[in-house]
User: Fold this.
Amino acid sequence: MKYTGILFVFSFLLTQISAQDSLWIRRIYDEALLRGHAHENLRQLCKDIGPRLSGSAQAQMAVDWSYEKMNSYHFDAVKKQEITVPHWERGTTESAWYKSINKYEPVHKLHLLALGGSIGTNGLLEAEVIEFKTLTDLKNAKRKDVEGKIVFLNQPMDAAQIQTFKAYGACYAIRGNGAVEASKLGAKAVVIRSLGLPIDAHPHTGSMHYEKDIPKIPAAALATTDADALSAALQAGKVHFYLEMDCREFPDATSHNVMAELKGSKFPDQIITIGGHLDSWDTGEGAHDDGAGVIHCLEALRILNELGWQPTHTIRVVFFMNEENGNQGGKQYATWCLANGEKQIAALESDRGGFAPRGFGLDGPDQYLSLLQSFEPVLRSYDLHVFEKGYGGVDIGPLKDVYPGIPLFGFVPDSQRYFDYHHAPSDVFESVNKRELELGAAAIASFVYLLDQKL
Amino acid sequence: MKYTGILFVFSFLLTQISAQDSLWIRRIYDEALLRGHAHENLRQLCKDIGPRLSGSAQAQMAVDWSYEKMNSYHFDAVKKQEITVPHWERGTTESAWYKSINKYEPVHKLHLLALGGSIGTNGLLEAEVIEFKTLTDLKNAKRKDVEGKIVFLNQPMDAAQIQTFKAYGACYAIRGNGAVEASKLGAKAVVIRSLGLPIDAHPHTGSMHYEKDIPKIPAAALATTDADALSAALQAGKVHFYLEMDCREFPDATSHNVMAELKGSKFPDQIITIGGHLDSWDTGEGAHDDGAGVIHCLEALRILNELGWQPTHTIRVVFFMNEENGNQGGKQYATWCLANGEKQIAALESDRGGFAPRGFGLDGPDQYLSLLQSFEPVLRSYDLHVFEKGYGGVDIGPLKDVYPGIPLFGFVPDSQRYFDYHHAPSDVFESVNKRELELGAAAIASFVYLLDQKL
Assistant:
């Protein structure tokens, strides 16, 4: 009975949100919505710099911009952390079309993007196409049917999934492993249906990989309209595919994570890391992925600082480099924290776009779930309803390996439009709504404010 | 104790969602997301017809289109209900600019829309401008300061409000009552800051009114960028304003509500009405307001019919005419239902845009709140979290007067982007996301499915 009583009191204290807290959160939202910097900062990142693939000149411009920006806000301990990153470039030629054999049909020109990391074609590559719906179908195919051909992996994302990330996850293998599996059966190249939900003319790029001792073959993604057209053409008869790309890998480059802090008043050596990734794919402007995420976290720290808030623990914002094709930023950050004897006590990532906030997910021990859920009563009136087990983020993921039991939190915005833009030329500044972006920054600032107190 | 027990059992039954229900709801979402008609139907309404102000040729084209569409889905009792509506036209001249007095500054041309119902200027109207921040400030002004001038009501919507409809409601009076209050003090015309959240060049029109024995003066809305510029110019000195509009009122016209049913199997004489409004303002394409709402309800009925569902009560979809400037559709529908001795047992409206669904609000007796909340467990996994007291809708509102105690439900989508488009030229088909629209239709179909069973 006594034990139950203590538990009750503990759980009561844990779930107590004071009037003081409510006031602070209201001030955070006012600052974000009435005097926010988020939209203008995202404009600078997207329009003055543009896409920011690891190893590119623009990625380094973004590093410098971030460093200057963090200094301009007078944060503590502004720092560039040197890391090594891969360096792949799309090149200047990227062209593809197909033609039905034995038919007086015009050539069908395609909207296509090389997958990140792909080798080039070394001139024009021409071959017959063979279509598979899934990677499993390809794996089950006979070598004689695939050899010398271009493999077309045409798995649509499942529109019936309410959470679009689940639909993405289910198709991820055709992009990540398509080249390896097609090459095992002697294919000349692989083209995939873009991992995007709308039927439109925007191809979606993204990472792929090769494996030792398996010949590298070119890999590219077709717009969903083109994937449908190619599939229909294949129903009608044989199709010849023409592909030319001069993308290639360069030697590894030096780049940086960029970070800054608000020093903790009571436990300055205990660190809460919040961040997103500064790099992006080289198409579009990396606005939702993940310009919005780094701007969210930057703006959250700016707001808290502007309001004169002093955290108990140290809050560190990190702009990670190289999430898209290697996660070197995330990996090297975790290693560096451990090597420096840092106490990392929690982390949050924003890497799901700048859409209207829905809540937060927890990747970590169950004991933190009740902590997370205790935030709901005060945040519900800000249209936040999701406080549940979930995913943290790619960049903060490696912290789990070096700090077992650390709670990782993921900011959860509405996911419905994310795969309209993800890794596509349409992921530009204009696709981010000012107000939705600002609400994201306010939600994260409020979360950090509460987390710092309750941890 | 026994009474409590009965209550408990009752409340248990009420909140029971069976596995059967879950299955039906999954089938509803599959139909909406994989085989939906909503996006193509909205395209037809917005692109083949366009804006649909009461009394216009396009409004009647929309009536005919709706009637044909409902017949094509083989609904029961497809019907046009004749009603009388106002008929106002914008005309062909709508032009405004201002000039600072005694300064060698260029003329500032304005983005402006006459408010719906406004009289024209009868040639070029020229006058000095006087600015007020609120309607109360205007009411407190002296006649000598206002007489002969153009009143500029420059009240910004409060961006700090999380629910944008609250910010809209707080500014509504400058649009609805500005002309009356300005005229009382002898003003020549009134121009208001558009009721929109973004700072951009899109003016937002909307309804206004005149009062008996108070001289009618022209009324218009400025884009928010222009309102800011005009306010800055007034800070610097006197400003002359030039306004020419040839909008005018015509005699009342005949129009129609359009409706169809799925007949109830057990209680065919008990009717659940669901709907939105078919009319729109004459700028843009009325895509979110309220093309999305009528398409939501049409699609909900189509889905339920397509799946072979037979309701217990009769489900009637109504496309109301004239919500924007008179609500004659809503008023005459309620009167007609009563006159025909109909039993209206509940109603739902969708008139907050085609954005990602958040839930449902109840305007009605408290006893229905637990019913509404009992839907949450099964709908939560469809990203629906709002099940609370709220507002039904303008069109279904009059049902309350003739059926006291009737529960009115409002579909609640995310409100963050609504006032980017509301009553503005930007409210076009392209501003509605296909998937978000489809999710709205599925949410409403699921709600109707549950409501029919639990009522």
